[in-house]
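This part of the workshop introduces the protein records we will be handling. An example says more than a description, so a record of this kind follows.
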Amino acid sequence: MAEVFVSLTIIMAISAVTPILARIIPKQIVPETVILILGGALLGPNMYDLIKTEAPAIEFMSELGCAFLFLLAGFEIDPKSVTGKDGIHGLATWGVTLAISILVAMTTPSIASGRQGMIATALLFTTTALGTLMPIIKERGITGTRVGEIVISYGTWGELAVVLAVAVLLGTRTKWQTAVILAGLLAFCVWLGAAGARAKRRGSKIFKFLESKSESTSQTFTRITILLLVILVTISAIFDIDIVLGAFAAGFVLRYVIPNGNHSLETKLDGMAYGLFIPLFFIVSGARINLRAVAKIPQLLVLFILALVLIRTVPIVISLTLRKSTRKEISMHNRISAATYCTTALPLIVAITSICVKNGIMEDDVASVLVAAGAVTVFLMPFIAKITYTVADAEPISAIVEIAHHPESTMDIVHSHVELERKRALKYKMEEKGLLLHEKWEDKKENLREKNN
């Protein structure tokens, strides 16, 4: 037990120091998630061996962290963004990326062996780490914007479709048995959502009681939400389905019951999730990365990331460009930015490689390199997306034309365009602050309305 508490102390120390380190780094270009993963990799069993990831208690808390991550991701998603036009195009684009990835997987047998290995490799190329992305795009003020909507719509299918495909194609049961289980889970979630929404709409005595106790020591709403999460995650675990699916479903059900959100509940869930469980999940995920294995075959890491860009980023950019509405609404640099965000991958890479290693179709070193590549995308893709904005705001093509006409004023032209980018960045920050203040004011009004009702 002492070993568990020592590991937990080290994990929480990394978690507490991470926001400070992220703040110190110039322009805050490194997301907190990356620092958490790196801290885990350095202090995990493959390097300094201070974090004991094999301890059942640490492993269990890490699984809870993953569950909370996807609960919040599911709760952030408006059902219309999945079933609307953006969602339909997102699903179609994911289908295209899957077809391309299958062709690529056929030519890369060295990653995983056999037919199951080929399927697993193909799925690895199509994932989007939406749960991991949510805190990053929130941090950057992208949620609520058109780019944010695209990232969520396309990213949801990059997460949800892969989870379903893993359950059906990589599971130990027959396909029809898996289909029956998934259909049963869907029916149960629909019933839960409908029952909850009906109780809220009719103002039943039970719902009023829960509401009246939500701010007391009873914390009824919070407890009911965690119960919902645990029930659906338990069902997933019992039927040997990735817990991501159950956690995601819990978020969807919660969003259906309270479609306009609940500031008080969200604050409490964020406090629990981002205060303990989610940082722990990222640190433990990092601790499982073998940096020595990465050093042995660095070419695999580079090739995997390049393949992700070609298979995932490029089709999304093409999809957004071919679609008339998004072509008009979103500039090219915004389309590239949205597609780049959607290429961020990690939790499902961890899940798929774990299944492959367990089934003996992938070597430990290869799995470790792929997880490391996923961790790199968590830093690299949001960084490229941010750089895309910076470069576009500086209007480089215009600068080149000006320099061609007035080469003697090159330094002045460069300086003026850098200044232009700086002013626009400042303007975005001011707009973001204004948006946050507006959201806080709207939340206060919503809370007052709820109390009056």
